[in-house]
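User: Hi! I'm working on a homework problem where we have to compare a predicted structure to a textbook description. Could you give me the structure for the chain below?
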Amino acid sequence: MKRKTWIQLAIILLLTAVFLYFFFRGVEWRNVWTYLRQVKLGWFLAAVLISPLHLATRGFRWKYLLVHEKPDVRFYNMFAANAVGFTVTFMLPGRIGELVKPLYLARREGCRPGFAIGTIVIERIFDMFTMCALLGIFLLSRPLYASVFKIQAQTEKNLAFWGIIGVALASTLLVLSLLFYFFKDKALRVAAVVLKWLPHRLRDIILNLLHEFIDGLKIFHSLGNLLAYIGLSFVVWLGITFFYLVFFKAFGLAVSFFLLIPYIFLTMVGASIPTPGMVGGFHYFSKLGLVELYGVDPNLAFGATLVVHAVQLVVTCLIGYVILWKDGLSLLQLKRLGETMKT
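Assistant: Happy to help. Predicted structure tokens:
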């Protein structure tokens, strides 16, 4: 293993350990177990059944990015690519699943790999913009719910801070993507100059992938598809919010749909931290959101977070492993596929 890889792994493990320390700090296991035994089975089973919903809505949304390359992409393959990608993300470090997802679809549908990767960049940009927009609506609507939902001033400031960070990051990626797309020839010439020190064959491969990647941004050339994609991005995240609404009912947490938005935003922030399987980052921000936003007992917040993460991991990985079994593939093969593109 290269020295650079060891350093990256050490940083990831350190981040994971820090977040897990704060997540586990002060836990009273007896109280956690008491809360877990009180889970309402009906609501819990309902949450398990709808937990893969986002794989379907993400798949349906994806076709608006892929239509410029292949109009007749099968829905099953988009669903399967999402399931396999998230399975790899859950099971392996380094977020290789973000690359495996488009590369898996490219192989199944005969798409260009670089094009498929370009669509995932757009997906992540709009995921961030969508949740930041929902958070903005929530914060601006405070006068409407101030009498029934108290939120501490510091918590509101923290939410606004992370919202600004999200908008800034998404805006930066969006501007770079637009520059690549609308100034394609210049971008490729600059890339050729920057990469001129590489062997001729490797440079050509990278430039070809970059060319395909820029083609994956073609949604910016179709206003109709762009508006449809924006609308479906809200469907994706409101569907995720609905899953948490049902799940929290299983734990007796009566939080209304709209008031769940800041919690969903915080879990997105935690899940964005590149820890293995979202462990640590997701757990810390989930517990923080439940305690700070809704005044939930820390032990209940701890138990609910553990269970909701376990449900997402187990259900997604079961679906992913069934798909891989049908395809005759293994996680090791997918890991190599992702690492090949990284290098």
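For your comparison, note the following. The radius of gyration is 21 Å. Residues 28-342 form one domain. Good luck with the assignment!
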